[in-house]
Amino acid sequence: MAREMKDSGIEWIGEIPAGWKVLPAQRAFREIKTKNTDGNVQNALQFKFGEIIPKKNFDADSDDYVADTITNYTIVEPGTVMINGLNLNYDFKTLRTGLVKEKGVITSAYLALWPNQDLITPEYATYLFKGYETKKALHNMGSGIRLTLGYKELKKQPILFPSIDEQKQIVAYLDEECDHIDSVIEQTRASIEEYKKLKQAVITHAVTKGIRPDRQMKDSGVRWIGKIPDKWSVSSLNRGIELIQTGPFGSQLHADEYVSNEIVVVNPANISNGEIIPDNSCTITKSKAYELSRHILKRGDIVFGRRGEMGRCACVIDDKRDYICGTGCIQIRLNDKIVPAYLSYYLQNPCIKQYLEIHSVGTTMQNLNTSIVGNIPILLLDINEQEEIVSYLDRKKSEIDQLIFKKEKVVEELDSYKKSLIYEYVTGKKEVPA
Description:
The chain is of the alpha+beta class. 34% of the residues lie in helices and 21% in strands. The protein has a four-stranded antiparallel beta sheet with strand order 4-11-8-9, covered by helices on one side.
């Protein structure tokens, strides 16, 4: 028999069980604001994937900055409900609710709530706010230019209160169901990582050993390359380069030159997994690009990030877009000795990243220059064989990427189902099975 329902008075929730109460949050929560002034509590905590966990490498005993920072953190006890109410209008993916499970300190920028356990349990409150997150309700409670949620805004908001016994039943049921879903998600993500490793192994083997069977091999003389086919040779990237240059510097690329739907500027952040990920908000006018025409990227050019994460590179294959090399990148145009797509695959070898880390310059941030990149050890082989390898890797990469895509869809669907499950039970749309 279906239980009796009533209107909650909350538009985005709708009906709730008739026996549930709806009260403002201030009736059930008080804000925790106790600062760690004397620095005695040194277990620093952080949000990670909707959980509150200890921070790593945050040692107040060995770092004066940490020691000073930690005195401004808020002391929290097990059972404290945390909400990350920062920048709500910029970020719709971050999991913003978590439960403290060990005593520690956490940045005072977050909202720390101590529940009145005569009205609401910490565990149910955490699930309830996760349910609120599902409908982006917390985002709608924020105030200010960046939509920040503080206790001043939250305390007036309506909260659902089943009986304590029913709260415990809901929590026990959701714990079991969510643990099962999380286990499947974890296994699926592990499988995705294995496919990624397989893809990298296939690429590395093909570009350093070839794909033709039963060949005479020889030592390359480069430890991380190992043996190579007898007819291949080792050289430096310079042997295959027609043009190598850094992107335009300083005032040549003013931020106020950026306009939409014009020439896309490629910066290191736009390079991922051998591909260019365009940022349409980072562009320059066609007239400005004309002034910097020697930096325009052509089909087959390799663009290399020279700052931050070492080894970011991509081959320009989309000639339907107009790109220009950004300040933080190096542009490479090849001669007829190297097929661009082959080199792009070759440069994805993790050992290239290690090589560049060793040879990079700079004290506060790693940097590359044209000399370092030009001296990367490469393999020279027949153009026809390079094209064979590219065709083979394009096919194998597509096959593995399809498998990864399907696994990622499974993770996405499971995550969506978990969120829906939490919302339906904490709002009474579904009743815990007897």
